Amino acid sequence: INAIAVSPGDPQLILIGTATGGIWRSTNGGNSFSPVSDGHADLAVGAIAFSQSSPTIAYAAMGDIDNGYFGTGVLKSTDSGATWSRVNNATFPDRGNSVSIKIDPSNPNKIYVAMYNFNNAATGGTFGGGIYISSDGGISWTNPISGGASDIAIHPTNPQIIYAGMRFVFGAGNLPGLYRSTNGGSSFTRVY
Question: How buried is 66 (Cβ within 10 angstroms: 0-12 exposed, 13-18 middle, 19+ buried)?
């Protein structure tokens, strides 16, 4: 199990994301689970989260970094995790290992994904990763900081402040460490 998310609207509703078994859902506080994503192209889930402001919305970022299973994009549920559909377009890497997904606490359409790496067939197998941000519910994405991302966090009272843990950063002179954005992820600066 790579990821666990408890619904902010119902503590009995739990989603788990597994390395090779897809997404599983419990409606009884974890006493039993049922698979809910078996019809998708891959079953490697890296991260999963419910929206705080709209608890019927959940997202899953695909790919298992521990075993190296590439995932293919971002899945979205609008019915509390009962059903899922792939939402991302080609602005998100087609194969990668996602390690964290966060949703803006006041906007269920703004999503942040920390991706450790990807292998994008469309660009000839280019290696990369970093922080990916969507403002339209997971369809289109920007990549304001590239490298090997290990985690991402949103400030609890100011969603314009974003922290990103980076194992490495692409670009001359850019070092690993903790990076911070004060503009909702448009740009990041190394702070530690």
Answer: exposed
Structure tokens at 161: 């402040």
pLDDT digits (tens, 9 = 90+) for 33-86: 999 999 888 899 999 999 999 999 999 999 998 888 888 899 999 999 999 999
- What DSSP string describes the chain? --EEEE-SS-TT-EEEEETTTEEEEESSTTS--EE--TTSS---EEEEEE-SSSTT-EEEEE-BTTTTB-B-SEEEESSTTSS-EE---TTS-SSEEEEEEEE-TT-TT-EEEEEEEEEEGGGTSEEEEEEEEESSSSSS-EEEEEEEEEEEEE-SS-TT-EEEEEEEE-STT--SEEEEESSTTS--EE--
Tokens of residue 13, six digits = 């509703």
Predicted TM-score (pTM) above 0.85? yes
**Rounded distance between C-alpha atoms, residue 61 and residue 86, angstroms:** 10
